[in-house]
Specification:
TIM Barrel; 10 helices; 43% helix; alpha/beta
Amino acid sequence: MLWPKGWRQRTAVMGVINITPDSFSDGGRFLRLDHATKEAQKQLRDGADLIDLGAQSTRPGAEEVGAEEECRRLLPALKQIRSHAPEALISVDTFLAPVAAAALEAGADWVNDVSGGQRDPALLQVVANAGCPVVLMHSRGNSRTMDQLTDYDDVLEDVRQGLLSRTEAALRSGVRKEQILWDPGLGFAKSHRQNLMLLQGLETLVQESFPLLVGPSRKRFIGAVLNEPDPLARIWGTAAVACRCAQAGVAVVRVHDVGPMAQTLRMAAELW
């Protein structure tokens, strides 16, 4: 099993690289192969424990491009990054089984599925066959519908139950328990207030037997708290959330600004 160095002894840093024209805060920046490769090298130097490559935007309202286009964007960058950083841990952010299979064949180590195996259940079989770590995220609907699907009786308990349900589906597909990480899905079918409630109750999810990954980086709820419409200017709000994650014992924080967040989490590890 491929885990970051010092796994579970501190909060690991997952760096984000979106190979898309339309991601919410960095769309288009890394479409060129050399730009994506240089960014991966920079993130690794800055303290990323693993890199998460995505070629399908999952921001609210995003158009889905399909497996063929996703692979066309993703695989050249994945292969080049792997050739330049053979020891790096690389995750692929996809909800489609053909993309996951092709990425694992090309050198990816993890699969990060924002749908938790709901959009393409065959992805769970791909993960079971590969024996690799898989992130099961809580979400509802898709990029076009999720903002209308925020009705919860108790958001923390409903997310916990949703993740348990997706875990049961993964186990039925042959995925082993030790392969699974959970992600509460900040910003995915969650209101501003609901995101904050999830963060305030992180210990409830951490106490389950699955490592927790949290992805707060530059998201709208931070902008709402700070009255900051520019995602690139939400770095300090993201850092505050990263500290909260460290305090709660979260295993991985997924971020765009790797250098500052790696320093933030290093300091937080000394405090908590």
